[in-house]
Structure to design on (548 residues):
């Protein structure tokens, strides 16, 4: 009988937490930007935490990564060939986009140590960075968006929550730069938090995007290891996002019906977007 | 500074738990059927737990109760006038149905002490049992379905998980009886668990319903205090459940778009239903 149990808990508030029993803590490092931890959990495989919040687990990362890549892929009016990912240092989004056949993927991650940690502990995800059509840049995505002369069909903001290093990724001035580097007929998407526990994040995303894009629409997905299990993404474009422009084979979460129905928002979520 | 913190944890497995900080434990009682606890939590108000699993909290019960009543209401082909609820001893489902204007609601709860506990701690929910058009029966719902000579337009199986007292509510022989007491054009719906943590429950519901009904369809909703935050319901009828037959004003979760889109199942959920 093992007398000591080790648990990693993510505190959703002072009064609520989700706890994973862990076999081992594989790493804990404080970088210039944030604290990174990796745990080997019993139920979810390896788990990456940043500043105490779950970023991904081996068991359920597929939901987040499919929904943040396949959705912009089918709703881009122009056939997507070039994509920019801001954040995404685990390589998951780049890997999904590469599978979708994009010709060029630029991934700008601000914290090089996220990439190093994932290289060691999530090699299957981070392998995408070795692909010939993927360019990995360790740097500030906000600055990159402001200064690059390249344009993209899909832009994915795969960031942490809108506090700390990711705060600027929800700003209106950031989306002004994004607009300039997005091709006509392209789409930009950002993760926009849990409508239940972080009710302001989805509104922030809309507020940042609306001045610059004709259409801004949120969609949701179920992600068991994210706070409340219910997550939002917000997408913007200058064309109608009402119908999809191309078909994709189903993933493990994404399928054709989900790609349309995920735009339906529960009534209380609608009230968060003004 | 308070040195002692009290937490109620629901264990989703040996290796995963969601914990609520509580101001007080208001009640703990073992009945002939199950153990009932009521906690006063900081974030979710009062919380009712049966056998250690969250049944409802004041803050998020609206999702479950809207989705288990409004969905059968709009998908019943016949205008719903008479409803049967099996389980539902908290009165939440009966209350929602009463608001929808049903003429007669019969609520059969097996454990009288659930009703007594809720009468004391959730008076706003349980008040529905005092309405003139609501008949409350303390008894075995399986036996009631087998022996009643009354017929209903909507039948709601608002039970605990398919272990313990609710096990029989997922059986094929139970749905044979349900079929006999369901009016032509009516619908039956049951909660069918978390597709992520209880992957067999949704299949059990289909297996129980399929021999007796032409159409069986599952839908999902996001319920933050239920395991994984993602919950399924399964509905059966002899008519097409593809389109709704009447409109309802939006609730706090339910609205017209949700009533259609909630039938879209993520790919991994489809594989649970054979």
């Amino acid at each position: 009988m093992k007398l000591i149990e080790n648990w990693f808990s993510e505190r959703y508030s002072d009064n609520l937490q989700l706890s994973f029993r862990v076999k081992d803590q594989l790493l804990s490092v404080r970088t210039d930007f944030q604290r990174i931890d990796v745990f080997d959990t019993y139920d979810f495989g390896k788990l990456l935490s940043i500043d105490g919040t779950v970023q991904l687990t081996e068991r359920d990362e597929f939901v987040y990564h499919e929904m943040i890549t396949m959705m912009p892929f089918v709703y881009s009016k122009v056939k997507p060939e070039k994509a920019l990912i801001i954040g995404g240092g685990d390589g998951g989004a780049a890997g999904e986009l590469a599978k979708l056949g994009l010709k060029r993927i630029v991934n700008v991650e601000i914290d090089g140590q996220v990439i190093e940690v994932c290289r060691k502990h999530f090699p299957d995800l981070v392998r995408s960075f070795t692909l010939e059509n993927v360019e990995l840049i360790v740097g500030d995505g906000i600055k990159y968006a402001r200064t690059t002369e390249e344009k993209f069909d899909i832009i994915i903001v795969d960031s942490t929550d809108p506090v700390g290093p990711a705060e600027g990724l929800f700003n209106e001035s950031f989306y002004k730069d994004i607009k300039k580097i997005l091709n006509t007929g392209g789409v930009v998407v950002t993760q926009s938090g849990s409508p239940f526990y972080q009710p302001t994040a989805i509104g922030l995303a809309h507020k940042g995007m609306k001045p610059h894009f004709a259409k801004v629409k949120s969609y949701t997905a179920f992600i068991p290891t994210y706070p409340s299990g219910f997550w939002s993404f917000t997408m913007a474009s200058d064309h109608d996002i009402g119908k999809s422009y191309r078909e994709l084979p189903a993933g493990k979460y994404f399928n054709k019906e989900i790609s349309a129905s995920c735009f339906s928002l529960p009534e209380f979520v609608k009230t968060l977007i003004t």
